[in-house]
Amino acid sequence: MSLQRFTFPAKGWYLLFAAGILVLLHLSLFSDFMPPYKRLYGQITLDNVLHFAAFAVLGTVAPLAFRMRNKAMLALFFLLLLGFFLEWLQIYIPNRRCQLLDAVGNGLGLLFGGVVGFTLRRWQLRALPGDVT
Predict the structure, then answer these.
(1) Which pairing describes strands 44-45 and 39-41: parallel, antiparallel, or unpaired?
(2) pTM of the shown model
(3) Alpha-carbon distance 58 to 62, whole Å?
(4) From CA 30, how far away is CA 24, in angstroms rounded?
């Protein structure tokens, strides 16, 4: 499969990034969705894994949406702050819990997603000569 098939227009990545943040805000603050409390391994629950997955997706999209490395890093830092802020804010929301493992899952998801996103971006830049770094 050619990497040129994988590339979106830059606007598509921005829209995907913005939509991901909106979904994250909705699920964190306004939704009644709570995954079943199920321990998967030790203290790790299904909720922790979902936190990791959501932030891994956003972390992957950020370097693809923001073509310049410093803007992509700033977007990842913003997502890290947003993740910690949303977790802290859940103290004040009924039926929500502020948990350290959720915040850790957010951060690890961003780290994983950022590595994947920068790798995909590097592959894209090799496939499309003349693009900005």
Answers:
(1) antiparallel
(2) 0.80
(3) 6
(4) 10
Domain of residue 98: give its range: 3-127
Radius of gyration of the chain (CA): 16
Number of H helices, E strands in the chain: 5, 2
State how far the Cα of 55 lies from the Cα of 79, in Å rounded to an integer. Answer: 8
Local confidence pLDDT in tens for the 133 residues of the chain: 444 555 666 688 889 999 999 998 988 888 776 666 676 777 777 778 888 999 999 999 999 888 789 999 999 999 999 999 999 998 888 877 788 888 999 999 999 999 999 998 888 777 665 555 5
Alpha-carbon torsion (103, 108, 114, 116), positive or negative? negative
Q: Is residue 107 a part of any domain in this protein?
A: yes
What token pair was written down for 62?
Answer: 């950020």
30: DSSP letter: I
Task: Indicate the Cα dihedral angle 86, 89, 93, 99, nearest 10°.
Answer: 70
> What DSSP designation does 28 have?
I
Number of domains in the chain: 1
Domain membership of residue 132 (yes or no) is: no
